[in-house]
Each structure stands twice: as structure tokens, then as C-alpha cells.
Design goal:
globular; mainly alpha; two-stranded antiparallel sheet; 48% helix; Recoverin, domain 1
Length: 114
């Protein structure tokens, strides 16, 4: 009766990409990334830490905008829940295990041209 043959890994991967399914394993990997970015171990990712992490991928203005959009307390830092929501809502790729840097080395600058 129709449905998914879930033993077919490629079908599952395609459906995951289409539905943006978030697994417990994804959350665990992202928690590890969060802890590695939180270099002062205060339980938050601060602007300077996120700028350091994303510096090869996004412009400082873009990073500031990302934080502003997900910083519900407007305290210029993200809790893990805010960090998780940002990652999910923006559809950011979780880096390979053991990698502390984003894959893409191209800087994305969305600031208006002068």
C-alpha cells in the first residue's frame, strides 16, 4: 500500500531533506558544536565566538543579524535552545563529527552595496 520503503537509505535521506527532520543524533552533534564554540564555558554562544566560528562563511553583519533574529532576550548571546532554533530555522548544515569549522570557505556578505 504505497508508503516508504524505509530500508532504502536514499529514500529516507531525501525525505529527511524535504521535511527538514531533526533527529536526536543531530541535536547531540549540535550540542557538541555549541560546547566547542562556547570557549569561555558560560553556557552561551556570544557574538565574538560566533563571529570566530562563522568568519570564513558569513560577513560580520550577517552574523550579527543571525544573532539578533534568534536572541530572544536581546542579550547578544545565544543559549543552546536559541542556537538550536537558529540552526534549524536557517537550515544550516551540521559539520562532520570532529569538525569545528563550517565546510564552506566562501564568505557570504549580504550587506547592501554602496
Amino acid at each position: 500500500m504505497g508508503g516508504c520503503n524505509c530500508s532504502d537509505k536514499s529514500v529516507v535521506e531525501v525525505q529527511k531533506a524535504k521535511k527538514n527532520v531533526w533527529t536526536d543524533d543531530d541535536t547531540t552533534k549540535l550540542k557538541g558544536l555549541f560546547v566547542s564554540i562556547d570557549t569561555n564555558n558560560n553556557g552561551f554562544c556570544e557574538i565574538s565566538q560566533l563571529q570566530e566560528y562563522f568568519k570564513t562563511k558569513y560577513s560580520p553583519d550577517m552574523i550579527n543579524g543571525m544573532i539578533k533574529d534568534f536572541d530572544a532576550k536581546d542579550d547578544t548571546k545565544l543559549s543552546f535552545d536559541q542556537f538550536l532554533k537558529m540552526w534549524q530555522d536557517l537550515g544550516l548544515e551540521i559539520p562532520a563529527e570532529g569538525s569545528a569549522k563550517p565546510k564552506d570557505e566562501k564568505i557570504i556578505d549580504l550587506s547592501p552595496s554602496v
